[in-house]
Amino acid sequence: MSVTDQTEISLSEQHVGQLVADDFRYAHVFSQFGIDFCCGGGRTLTAASDKAGIPLAEVEAALSKINSEGQKDDALNQLALGELIDYIEANHHAYVREKAPLLMEYSQKMVRAHGERHAEIKPFAGWVRALVDDLTPHLMKEERILFPAIRAMAAGETVEGCFGHIGNPINAMQHEHDDAGHILQKLHEITNHFQPPEHACTTWRVCYATLAEFEADLMQHIHLENNILFPKALAL
Hints:
The chain is an all-alpha fold. Helix content is about 70%, strand content about 0%.
């Protein structure tokens, strides 16, 4: 049910993940307010606004402004499941594999240069490694197990696997998405939301900027899976 078509459920009681699935422009509003629309996509707009500490009326006003600015772009929501998987792999999985080694390199340089003088550096590098170690096998499990099963289901083929119902690997991937979200929250706390201190060197600044971009891509990545791909797969 889209935001504009719904008549029975108020905007405040709709789930933020579904709102973004209906109109991806909402993702930018939620990101600006610090509202989690991917791992926390199952929260209502009221609950998500409360958790972010933002007045509901302020969020609703921003969403209304988006509606007045033109038509939504829901092209990704309209893709066939196989095409959506192709998009996720070619864009988001490839992005993780490209940027994760850079984050590891930058954070280790920070440890070598500043780890003894700045207490936050070593824990920061540890959480960066935890994030990469979390995502690397996650991508492989999706590409080798879950995505082929969804492709087969979408093609009307019999799915053979040791995981039972398709909901089982989907639940596992969603739990791993939550784990990545928790790691990112720790990184936010350590880095003052990716804001380098005045004394930060170039590598330090580049690392934080890269991490901020990495998080933005990962949020869209998780959103596409949690709020569009997985529900459609379960509906099959």
